[in-house]
Design brief:
This protein is α+β, with helices and mostly antiparallel strands. It is about 40% helix and about 15% strand. It is elongated and about 65 Å long.
Length: about 300
Amino acid sequence: MTRRDLEHSRANDLLHQLTHGVYAGTGLPQEPEAEPVHALLQGLTESTSRVVSFETAGRLWGLIPGEVGAPLHISSPAGGPRVQRPHLVVGHRITVPGQFVLELGGIRVTSPAWTWLDLALEGPTGPKGPRGGEVERAVILGDQVVRRPRGEYGETGGQLASIAELREVVRARGRTRGIRGVREALGLIREGVDSPQESRLRYFMHLAGLPEPLVNPVIRHPSGYPWFEPDLAITAFRVAIQYEGEKFHSTPHSVRKDVRRSEIAEQLGWIEVRITADHMADQGRRAIQRIQRALIHQGWRPETPTTHR
C-alpha cells in the first residue's frame, strides 16, 4: 500500500491505527476485550513473514494461563528487520520453517510443537542450573502439549501435538543453546498427565532414581473389574501416587471419593501416597521421601531394576 493509499483509507475511516506502522481495517468484526489484541496480532503478521511466537503463542494455544496481552512476542526471519515496539511488542529474530506455522483465528502463529520448543529453550533456570531448569520446564510443557482432553472432565478437542512432532521440531531447530536439555526432556515426556504439578513430581522422581510410574493407569480387581485410577502408579510394587490439588480435592464429595479410593487400594494390597503442594519444595524432597518409604515397605530397593514406560 502506498502512502497515498494509506492516507486515503484513514481519511475515509477504512483503516484505523493499532500502533506505529500497524493498521487494521475498520470492517473487522468487533469482539469485546479480545478484539484490539486480535486485530493487532493480525496487523503485525498478515501478508508478512512474521509470526506470533513464544509466550504470546503459548497463551493462544493454552499452554500458558492468562489472557493474551502486552508484551506481544513476534518472530521475524533471521537476518531481516525485527519488529520492536517498546512496552508493546518484543521482537525475535528466528526463521520458523513453514511447516511449523499455522493460522489460528486469522493470526499466523507458531505450531504447538514449535511453541513448546521456544518456551522450553527460554525457560527460567532451575535449582540445578540452566540445564536442569530447561529439562524440567520442557517436561512440564511437553506433558501439556501431548495431553489428550478427557471427556470425563468435560474437556473437548484433540491433542495439540504428538511426541513425534516434538522430536521433529527439535531436529529442525538444530544446534542451539539449551537444546541438549530439551533432548533429554524428550525421553521423559508422557501422554495423559493431568497437571503441571504431576509433571514436576514425575521429573523429581526421575532425578531421585525412583522407578518410573505409569500415568493414570486403571487398576483392576483380580476379576478384571476396574477399581481405581491413580494419578501415578508403580505397579510392580503396588504403590499408587495421588497429587491432591486443593481445587479438586477439597469438596465434601471429593473427600469421600478419595477416602473410598484409599480403602479400595488397601483392599487390593496397594499403598496410596498422597502428595500436596507442601511436599513439592526443594525438588520435591518430602514427596520423594514419602514415595521411597512406601516403595521400601512394598519390597523395593534402590538397586531394583524396574522401569515402566
